[in-house]
Amino acid sequence: MRLLLVEDDALLSDRLRVELEQAGFAVDVAANGADAEFMGESEPYHVIVLDLGLPGRPGLDVLRRWRAGGNPVPVLILTARDAWHEKVDGFKAGADDYLSKPFHTAELIARLQSLLRRSVARSHGPLRVAGLELDEDAQTARISATGETFELTGTEFRLLRYLMRHPGQVLSKTRLAEQIYDFETERDSNVLEVYINRLRRKFGRELITTRRGQGYVFGTGPA
Ligand code: CA
User: Fold this and answer.
1) Span 22-48, mean pLDDT?
2) Residue 222 pLDDT level (bands cut at 50, 70, 90)
3) What's the gap in Å between 76 CA and the centre of ligand 1?
4) Residue-level pLDDT at 223
5) In what order do the strands lie in the sheet with 170-171?
6) How far is the CA of 144 from the centre of ligand 1 (A)?
7) Is 106 left (phi over 0), alpha (psi -120 to 50) or beta?
8) In angstroms, rounded to a whole number, what is the distance separating the alpha carbons of residues 90 and 78?
9) Distance from C-alpha of 165 to C-alpha of 163, rounded to nearest angstrom
10) pLDDT single digits (tens) 44-87
11) Local confidence band at 183 (pLDDT 50, 70, 90 cut-offs)
12) Ligand 1 centroid from CA 140, angstroms
């Protein structure tokens, strides 16, 4: 199970990482809000532990942006002790559970396992948008009308998933490029165009519209 731990307190996150790994999670750590937003958006985590007090961008903003982008990943927030309003705001922003600091790691692990059981139980099935069905486990996409199914490379999959989570929105090249490059790779918009064109060849040109100087729109067809 892949887990994203968002916590700016290095002592706490070092300790939690070890304990969560011992409990069987594959743990990535983000120490600020901007990294957390990016990683939660681009990597397929099964569950996220999100501290609310973060440098740069507050945890609640990060959570709101994930939910606005259609990201359904289960999120457990870490709140300050006795800050009941943080819990209310957290649930309103789309949190699934909370734990107040300080806490016992055993309780965190029990709550995460409970969240994971619930998210498997309500298993949302393939993402269906604009006549396409995306199977996130198999990383394949199927054209609903014909039943034709395509295997996707990792990059094609991440780009298509992002497009399908934001149908009808103008998506800038910068935003889309973030989905196909890792942190180190140099960003070259020609590479993005190559991947957009690969998706168009598989699924039809009309699926992704170019907006000159603005970016791309998925799923609305020709204007
Ligand atoms: Ca903090």
Assistant:
1) 92
2) very low
3) 14
4) 40
5) 170-171, 215-218, 208-211
6) 45
7) alpha
8) 9
9) 5
10) 888 999 999 999 899 999 999 999 888 889 999 999 877 889 99
11) very low
12) 38
Contact in structure between 19 and 42 (CB atoms under 8 Å)? no
10 by DSSP, 3-state: which?
helix
Cβ-defined contacts of 97-104 (< 8 Å, 24+):
103/78
Residue 121 predicted with pLDDT over 80? no
Reported confidence tier of residue 96, pLDDT bands at 50, 70, 90: very high
Cβ contacts of residue 195 below 8 Å, gap of 6+?
Answer: 155, 156, 159, 180
Rounded Cα gap, residues 64 and 59, in angstroms = 9
Q: What is the DSSP string of 22-39?
A: HTT-EEEEE-SHHHHHHH
Cα-only R_g, the chain = 19
Separation of 170 CA from ligand 1 center, angstroms? 34
Structure-token pair, residue 211: 């907006």
Report how far ligand 1's centroid is from the alpha carbon of 52 (Å): 6
